[in-house]
Write a structure and sequence with these properties.
single chain; 292 residues; eight-stranded mixed beta sheet; 34% helix
């Protein structure tokens, strides 16, 4: 059940179903171990207090716990269905990979993180910052971070063009969800949010009073290659996990699925549900809370 007291953007309610949680877990790309190595190079250790904010069903959290060996992880996520899946994944990780893992999965928002002041070494936000790129979130993140604590914003980016390994034909498949005909009733602004995710930091640069919360200058990691092996059914699941696609009425959603299947079958690389590779780059942008 959706907690109506949580102030979410309308599209975000697309994540509040078990179907969307299952599709997200099955379809969305994971993150490379090199992204964790980069974070550890910022001065973090296995005992650092980590928060995965807007953790979803635990895609990035799982990598933190396995590849990073982080032992103290708190996930904060508004969707109850995502939280259930995240807890299931982390219980499995604890049994199979990291028996010293201590974790919590809590209901919360970027503007209401249920943790004490100055208690966290690093907050990670993986493929989610666009949902809450605002000064209220910056203030709350600053509240829970220790002095000199890190905010790390992580993205998986699939590029197309002259220097990309991704064939142009893949755009009609992995980006069909961006087609305006499947984004009526103002659902498309999710992409607009993605395009504007840096705006709050640009605004902070012009307002010195906000520099007490976070350094507004983001530092970017080198791009980290993150090829993902997928196939037709997994690609469909990934697309159905997009918030605004999840919200489509049943008839429109089926039309979307039918067109996506047609596109998959029309391209030899992706036909007959065979495996193919989508080449992503993982990018990390980080900043810190002032040390005093």
């Amino acid at each position: 059940m959706v907690n109506e007291n949580l102030k979410l953007k309308d599209n975000a309610y697309g994540y509040h179903t078990k179907e969307c949680s299952d599709n997200y877990s099955k379809g969305r790309p994971s993150y490379p171990k090199e992204s964790i190595e980069f974070l550890k190079g910022l001065g973090l250790s296995s005992d650092s207090v980590m928060v995965d904010l807007a953790s979803g069903p635990g895609k990035f959290t799982r990598v933190l716990a396995i590849e990073g060996g982080f032992n103290n992880i708190t996930c904060v996520e508004p969707s109850g269905d995502f939280r259930i899946e995240c807890e299931n994944i982390l219980n499995q990780v604890k049994v199979e990979y990291n028996p010293t893992l201590n974790f919590k999965v809590l209901e919360g928002l970027s503007t209401s993180i249920p943790l004490p002041d100055n208690s966290v070494d690093c907050i990670t936000v993986a493929t989610a910052w666009h949902w809450f790129s605002n000064i209220e979130s910056v203030k709350e993140i600053s509240r829970v971070l220790k002095p000199n604590g890190i905010l790390a914003i992580i993205w998986n980016v699939a590029n197309f063009g002259e220097n990309s390994k991704n064939p142009l034909q893949l755009q009609s498949i992995i980006r069909l969800h961006r087609d305006p005909k499947f984004n009526t009733n103002n659902r498309l602004p999710t992409k607009s949010l993605r395009d504007k995710w840096r705006d709050v930091f640009d605004e902070m640069k012009n307002d010195p009073k906000t520099h007490i919360y976070l350094n507004p200058e983001l530092t970017k990691s080198p791009s980290i290659p993150n090829p993902q092996i997928t196939f037709g059914e997994k690609t469909i699941a990934s697309s159905l996990s997009m918030s605004y696609i999840s919200l489509l009425p049943p008839t429109e959603k089926q039309q979307f699925i039918n067109e996506l299947k047609q596109n998959l079958e029309s391209f030899d690389l992706t036909s007959n549900n065979k495996e193919f590779t989508v080449y992503y780059d993982t990018e990390i942008f980080y900043t810190r809370k002032p040390s005093n």
